[in-house]
Amino acid sequence: MLTFDELTEARRTLQNFCLLHVPSLTILQYGVSFKLLPSDDPKKLEDGELHHPTATATCLSSLFDCPPRYRTKRFERAETAKAGFSAAAFRRKKWKSEGSAGVYCRCRALPAVVRFSVTFDASIRAHLREIVGQLDRVPNRFGIGEAGKGLPVDQWYPPNAFHTYWTLELLDRIKRKEQPEHKDLLNSKALGLSRKTDGMVQWARQQLGIQLGLHSASPQSSMLDTDQLAWSLAIFLSFDKTLTMNLENRDLLKQAFKCLFSTQADGTWRHYKPLFHYKNAGNAYCYVFETFAVLLQCALQEKAEAEMVRELLRPYADKLMTLWQYADSTKIPLSLTPGGQEIGWCSGHRTNVTEPESWATASVFSYAQSLRRLIGIWCREEVLANRRAPINRRSRTEAEKEIVARGKTWGVNRAPVSDRLWTMFINPVKMRELTDRLEPDSRPIEENQARSAILFGPPGTSKTSLVRSLADVIGWDYVEIHASHFVAEGLPEVQKTADKIFRQLSELDHAVVLFDEIDELVRERDMEKDAFGRFLTTSMLPKLALLWEARNILYFVATNHINYFDSAIIRSHRFDALILVSPPSFDAKIEELKEVLSKSHLLSVAFQVTQDQIQSALEQVTKGAITAMSDAAQAAGRSQEEALDRYREQRLDPELALAKFALLRWDEVKELAFRLAQILGAPSSTITISSGILCKALNKVADLEWRKNKSYLDYVRDTESERRDFQMLNIWEVKSMPEVSVPGVEDANGSKWLIQSADSLRDIKIPGFELFPVASGAVEIRAATLE
Q1: What's the Cα-to-Cα distance from 766 to each of 198, 745, 763, 773, rounded to whole Å?
Q2: Domain co-membership, 556 together with 645
Q3: Residues 454 and 372 occupy one common structural domain
């Protein structure tokens, strides 16, 4: 089994291959040059005759399985070709491959033809009759083989899992189409496709059992056929409704993979029984890269059972990479463009063909893409197994409520933290959340989307809870990194440990990472004199930049002391925003106090205290610092700096206890309610709580060590420390709007979105329209009223 480091090295190898070769459209270019298409211009395909439908289908399918990251503008040629390919295929009269194999030509090419078609074509009915008609003519024949017109029954080839797989794939492609004619076709009593589908699947399950027996014999039977084992296994994984995540199927698959890889030699597999015989070219065999491309795609399906398949394939990662190394050793340079680096492959099946073949090249590309994705998922899963925070995940609805509740933070003119998290991080992900989670290189974060932030503020303001809830809202994995993780293997190994941690994080995608309690790692370098502190700060900078550039994860730092952070760390392209997470808002705490006093103490209260009074108390603490420094300037032997330090360490003046209310945490509200109940006495009618009563109760609330003047001074300073990179866009979900075009509004993922660089809705001016906030990160747009 490959180690994690070997897996990541394999992933880089495959990423580099796909980035270098797939965007060049090697497959399509090579197909055109050898007249798989009738012209160098795919647009003319509709007016011409399709050559080699199976090879062209393999080429186009391979290209369109290529994720967007690996495409370029030249991919437009393939976009043009696919519709023309389907139209030309349906017009084609003779369905042969090199003069033979009419069933093979149909069942292998038609899945792609149907996939890329835009309308229903009646000729598909005749094609299906030609493929599955053999099941009606021969009793007890349930699998598909080379048979039908042009061959007497006694010359029919035995059914095989390869033909049967592609027939089932064709029927599945028809099932996915939306046109009613496709539905009618599947339900046709004359064709009996439902019954025949069940028969083919059961036949394949029987073949899987036979091949497992032949492979498991000791010694192995000379009659085994690993090609048939692989393709019957592919049918079981893709089309068998009995496949569920249970112990029986797990053991069956475990043995199947063991048998499958037991016959691998020198990286590849030998030829087994031929599928059929070309009249002019000899035997036709399964191509190993086509086989394993399909098998790996079974592990990449969007269903729960695929997770079990990926897990069982993991021990054979080295075998799969050995097959890739065999491919690399057999590549053939091409000369399609001046100075080009295009490469191709020859299947080697026919002695009269030694030049590269487009379909073989496409099969290798498909295998490389599938293996790249699979190894990327394995890398991600291994990191999560070691780093994922052991917390209970909440539903999206529960997490949304948590962010709204904890995001109601203290402040007069600033947007609530919940709004900032929604517009900068949650909505941009929701706007594009259809990204394939099984594509580890999908880059789910857009270039102009915020992907990182430092959340700072007093202790106990739910910074960690907010990030956890954010991960639950968008449905991404959640990972926590603490300062202790960097020193887990001792100080001498800290550089090695830091490299390992960031190497692991670089393998993640669709994840939210929180660096929690790492203040000591990023202290201002001028303040930190020891080599360890300098190392941690310096080493973090390029690693954070790489995470930012990758656009695969969202990452946050939670800290109580933003002033300790190195200025180089908090600049753009490392962190997109500094967000102050204040204590709960004035209104939120008042409402919570009323509820606790009512339920727990049977007291009905009304507050006469205002937020302005609390703010005034905070300002008095600041003025006290100014006075202390002013007095020091007039006194001999004491500097202003010493006076300020002395003042910061003093406990809060009891006369200014209202300032405590600003920094009061959620977990301290219940204590304040208890202190108020002690002062108010027995229940009676509604009691009015004045600033004096609140001040008296706040003085009774237990002070922690950090509740000194310095805490209030730091908080006031922190209110001026927020910033964000205005290159990163904010996004609001539009809940309702007029039936007209509104500047800045886009349709995506079933909703409308307002996209702006502004900080808040009140900063956005759209002529002719008015904006009204309706929820966190949501807006209602109305036509402006005329005065």
Answers
A1: 59, 11, 10, 15
A2: no
A3: no
Task: Kindly state the tokens that stand for 731.
Answer: 């996004």
Helix (H) or strand (E) holding 169: helix 161-176
Neighbouring C-beta atoms of residue 654, cutoff 10 Å = 10
DSSP 456: E
Please list the alpha-helical segments (H only) found in 649-688: 658-663, 666-680
Q: Write the DSSP string, 419-430.
A: HHHIIIIIHHHH
- What are 429-476's pLDDT values in tens digits? 999 876 678 899 988 999 999 999 999 988 888 899 999 999 999 999
Question: pLDDT (tens digit, 9 = 90+) per residue, 357-372?
Answer: 888 988 999 999 999 9
Tell me if 291 is assigned to some domain.
yes
pLDDT, averaged across the chain: 87
Claim to verify: residue 54 and residue 30 sit in the same structural domain: yes
Look at residue 379 and give its three-state secondary structure.
Answer: helix
CA 645 – CA 728 distance, rounded (Å): 39
Say if CB 459 and CB 414 are below 8 A apart: no
SS3 769: strand
* Integer Cα distance of 663 and 709 in angstroms: 12
Kind of pairing between the strands at 745-748 and 751-756: antiparallel
- CA angle centred on 779, ends 776 and 783, rounded to 5°: 160
Distance CA 474, CA 438 (A): 16
Q: Taking Cα atoms as reference points, which of 724, 765, 734, 754 lies closest to residue 415?
A: 724
Name 127's Cβ contacts closer than 8 Å, sequence gap at least 6: 95, 106, 110
Helix-helix angle 611-634:640-648, to 10 degrees: 140
Strand 577-580, strand 332-333: pairing: unpaired
Beta strands in 630-718 (DSSP E): 687-689
Does pLDDT of 539 surpass 80?
no
Q: Which residues touch 324 (CB under 8 Å, ≥6 apart)?
A: 10, 13, 14, 367, 368, 371
The answer to whether residues 233 and 251 belong to one domain is yes
Mapping DSSP to helix (H, G, I), strand (E, B) and coil, where does residue 268 land?
strand
User: Tell me, what DSSP letter sits at residue 464?
Assistant: H
Last residue of a domain, one of 718, 740, 772: 718
d(CA 104, CA 128): 12
Contact in structure between 768 and 724 (CB atoms under 8 Å)? no
Give Cβ neighbours of residue 321 (< 8 Å, ≥ 6 apart).
Answer: 2, 10, 371
Question: What is the residue type of 95?
Answer: W
Residue 336 sits in the same domain as residue 403:
no
**How many separate domains does the chain show?**
4
Residue appearing with tokens 């009759």: 129
Structural domain harbouring 349: 4-385
Helical (H) or strand (E) element with 735: strand 730-736
How many angstroms separate the CA atoms of 654 and 763, rounded? 40
Rounded to whole angstroms, the Cα distance separating 163 from 231 reads 9
